[in-house]
Design a protein that fits this description.
Two copies of one chain form a homodimer.
Chain A (H helix, E strand, L loop, with lengths): L7 H20 L4 E2 L1 H8 L3 H9 L5 E2 L3 E3 H11 L6 E6 L3 H10 L11 E7 L9 E2 L2 E4 L4 H8 L3 E4 L3 H13 L4 E4 L12 E4 L2 H10 L7
The structure holds a DNA duplex.
Chain lengths: ~220, ~220
DNA sequence: TAGATTGTTAATCGATTAACAATC
DNA sequence: TAGATTGTTAATCGATTAACAATC
């Protein structure tokens, strides 16, 4: 499986399709779905659904549609969701702790997900050695060793803005290729490294633009 | 000020520019910046910077560049950041509470932000009437009244997936035009309403695609 | 004036949509 | 077979980049 240089716009829609298929697989006994239906449920045009899927193979049957279970399985393979995703989080401040407690643990028992949060890191010596939700907090010095030992695949960056680039660099040097960034900065990374950003203030400022000038 | 139908791709970059200008205004005494420099700091090409800004007016001087303080101010006006942004949050579960405690309060005292979280809502009668960080939790019945009284501009949806569309509809009916959605569902809204989504599992599944097949 | 950088138009690039032959 | 829907190619649409005259 080597489909090089498929646009990220395409990749971003695959989880959308997968979510629809997960629902169908659970809640109903629909065994087949057309690009039309799948598109409506995912909020994407039918032609685009077919084009997106066609990058990876011929998953449908003409005149019939796509087999829900089969397509779901193929998407899980394409997205690397069959394997366990080992995750580390750096920055055990209030945000980091909230993420550990409320977010990441939630995905531990998800259907189409196999996420395991294995390590926490913090620069504050007072926090190193403590446990949060049973997960040990380690020093930034330990990053290379733990990434290697635990085969960390994704790191969640939840440190303040001015430390984010530095910790990102440390994980990149240790071999991590996927970063989920909560710090309000644009991380500079080699293009072998993928960054997803959750930047609440950018989103809020964008929304503010759409506030009507005169009262509702 | 009515610049109708400017692409959302443009609007999304304005907060990026504003962030750069905020930093310059604080940390240094740089009074002028070129589209070149601003682009580098924001991660955007210089031609695009000029084109984006030109949608809203002529803010620069040929041969000189843009005045940092002036441009910052213009962007704040364009993005509606001069006025107080009154926010409500619905869904006081573990996620909602974490958002209240760790995220939204943080923006209360931000330089280029004037966010005020004024009301919480929950469908659980046991929670209605309690306070979270000093903010009262109210019943969904109260949505129309409170939106009107407090002039709520943005609602943060932090309810489970199956309740999200319903609560979104309630706020839309009450006149809210901006929704920040944390529920893992695509909200269907009239196109007079803007939705920003924070969907962690979609981001993680996207990142997973980029995990190398064979060990780092 | 000479040098620099804007605002803007034209060219390029990429992503989405429409159309349809292949085929289940 | 007749009807439906895929996979794919060609057409369209929109967004980014390049280029440059205007001008500070």
């Amino acid at each position: 499986m080597r489909w090089n240089k498929i646009s990220d716009a395409v990749i971003r829609r695959l989880p959308l399709y997968l979510r629809v298929l997960d629902e169908l697989a659970n809640e109903s006994d629909t065994a087949l779905i057309s690009s039309q239906e799948l598109g409506v449920k995912a909020g994407v045009g039918p032609a685009l659904v077919r084009k997106d899927l066609a990058w990876f193979g011929e998953f449908g049957k003409q005149g019939v549609g796509y087999d829900v279970g089969f397509l779901r399985n193929e998407l899980r393979k394409i997205l690397n969701l069959e394997q366990e995703l080992t995750v580390a989080l750096v920055g055990v401040g209030s945000l980091g702790e909230a993420l550990v407690r409320y977010h990441l643990k939630r995905y531990a028992d998800n259907d189409s997900f196999n996420l395991r949060l294995v390590a926490l890191f913090d620069s504050d010596p007072a926090k190193v050695g403590t446990l949060v939700e049973g997960i040990p907090v380690m020093s930034l010095e330990d990053i290379p060793r733990i990434v290697e030992e635990e085969q960390i695949k994704i790191v969640v960056v939840a440190v303040p803005a001015d430390g984010a680039q530095d910790v990102a660099n440390r994980f990149i040097r240790a071999g991590v290729k996927c970063i989920l960034n909560y710090a309000p900065v644009k991380l500079t990374t080699p293009d072998t490294v993928q960054v997803a950003s959750v930047d609440l203030s950018l989103e809020l400022q964008r929304l503010a633009y759409y506030i009507p000038k005169h009262p509702n």
